[in-house]
């Protein structure tokens, strides 16, 4: 979960660079003549906008509009896609894709046991990548990827991440990950690189307001409530879950994901109630002590009639602690 400590690792990513082992993530490969059409059917974003060697954040929804998983699609060609899925959902997503092929000329393969994944994140990540691979990664744009040969193995290097910082995610064969991990750490020393655990990954994503499956999103959550509407293209044609999502657009939301900052002392945690004058407004989905802001922060689903700047109460171990509703993300980053 951590190496030198969550705060230390977190600030290293915000200020310099951090290296994460995210090999627990799953990878599902789609191949075939109708791979692009199939991905367009199962994903909410518009796969048709993707060029070769481009990546795209999207959602896979069930017919009721609930989120099966949030994913990143990597397009190699119209006949070849790789989908990166959350570890906890790998088997579920794989089974869902198999069961929804519906006559599409595609092959669906779970490649999770073939890939390791290393994420290098932070403002100095490009300089470290240039040093390790003796290449110019300024040419690799955000949400694009390339293939690169390193020590006789092929790497997939994507300019993606889950921290809000510039960064790269590297897919490579299982057995080669320790070697590359050590090389990046060694050559990154001059830049102040830190090895980072999943604890810092969580605090970084909370500061950015990024959802985590099982916290902000699940099969009973409509992605519009989570503020993910920009990744849902209802005008692209049919996709699974479209009817339910359009119905929510037409009828309106009853709750929405908000951020809040604690006024009183106390760390908010998932499941804590949000109240105002004895009325339960919602429930905390994620919370932490923000290393960047040096204050407790959290996310919660709250009724849509609650405005930014409103004072609320978080029920922490039986005591009601004051907090203020704020906009997401907590950390404003330039694109």
Offer a few descriptive terms.
335 residues; alpha+beta; Gyrase A, domain 2; Alpha-Beta Plaits; Elongation Factor Tu (Ef-tu), domain 3; 3 domains; six-stranded mixed sheet; six-stranded antiparallel barrel; 7 helices; 17 strands; 20% helix; 34% strand; globular
Question: What's the layout of helices and strands?
Answer:
Blueprint: H1 6-15, E1 18-21, E2 26-31, H2 35-42, E3 54-61, E4 67-77, E5 80-85, H3 90-99, E6 107-110, E7 115-121, H4 125-133, E8 145-150, E9 153-158, E10 167-173, H5 177-187, E11 194-196, H6 198-207, H7 242-251, E12 255-262, E13 273-276, E14 279-290, E15 295-303, E16 311-316, E17 319-326
Parallel strand pairs: 1-11
Antiparallel strand pairs: 1-7, 2-5, 2-6, 3-4, 4-5, 7-10, 8-9, 9-10, 12-15, 12-17, 13-14, 13-16, 14-15, 16-17
Helix pairs in contact: 1-6
Strand arrangement within the widest β-sheet reads 8-9-10-7-1-11
What is the number of E strands?
17
What is the fold-level CATH name, i.e. the topology of the largest domain? Gyrase A, domain 2
- In CATH's first tier, which class of the largest domain applies? Alpha Beta
CATH superfamily of the largest domain: Probable tRNA modification gtpase trme, domain 1
The major pleated sheet works out as: 6 strands, mixed
Describe the structure.
Helix 1 (6-15) packs across helix 6 (198-207). This protein has seven helices and 17 strands. Strand 3 (54-61) and strand 4 form a beta hairpin. The radius of gyration is 20 Å and the shape is globular. It has three domains: 6-23 and 114-207, Probable tRNA modification gtpase trme, domain 1 (Gyrase A, domain 2), CATH 3.30.1360.120; 26-110, Alpha-Beta Plaits (2-Layer Sandwich), CATH 3.30.70.1400; 254-326, Elongation Factor Tu (Ef-tu), domain 3 (Beta Barrel). The protein has 335 residues and is an alpha+beta fold.
């Amino acid at each position: 979960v951590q190496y030198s400590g969550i705060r230390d690792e977190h600030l290293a990513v915000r200020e310099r660079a951090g290296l994460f082992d995210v090999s627990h993530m799953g990878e599902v490969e789609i191949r075939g003549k109708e791979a692009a059409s199939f991905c367009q059917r199962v994903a909410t974003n518009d796969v048709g906008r993707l060029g070769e060697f481009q990546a795209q954040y999207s959602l896979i929804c069930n017919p009721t509009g609930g989120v099966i998983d949030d994913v990143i699609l990597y397009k190699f060609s119209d006949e070849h896609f790789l989908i990166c899925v959350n570890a906890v959902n790998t088997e579920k997503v794989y089974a869902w894709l198999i069961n929804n092929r519906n006559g599409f000329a595609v092959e669906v393969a779970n490649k999770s046991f073939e890939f390791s994944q290393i994420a290098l994140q932070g403002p100095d990540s490009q300089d470290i990548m240039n040093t390790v691979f003796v290449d110019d990664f300024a040419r690799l744009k955000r949400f694009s990827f390339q293939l690169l040969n390193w020590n006789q193995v092929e790497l997939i290097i994507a300019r993606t991440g889950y921290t809000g910082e510039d960064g790269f995610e590297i897919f490579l064969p299982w057995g080669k990950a320790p070697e590359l991990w050590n090389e990046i750490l060694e050559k990154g020393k001059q830049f102040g690189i830190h090895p980072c655990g999943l604890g810092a990954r969580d605090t970084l994503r909370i500061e950015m307001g990024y959802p985590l499956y099982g916290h902000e999103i699940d099969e009973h959550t409509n992605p519009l409530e989570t503020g993910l509407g920009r990744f849902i293209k209802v005008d692209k044609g049919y996709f699974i879950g479209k009817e339910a999502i359009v119905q929510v657009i037409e009828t309106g939301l009853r709750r929405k994901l908000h951020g809040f900052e604690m006024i009183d002392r106390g760390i908010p945690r998932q499941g804590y109630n949000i109240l105002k004058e004895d009325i339960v407004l919602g429930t905390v989905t994620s919370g932490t002590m923000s290393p960047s802001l040096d204050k407790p922060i959290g996310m919660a689903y709250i009724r849509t009639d609650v405005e930014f700047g409103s004072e609320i109460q978080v029920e922490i171990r039986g005591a009601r602690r004051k907090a203020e509703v704020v906009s997401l993300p907590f950390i404003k980053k330039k694109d």
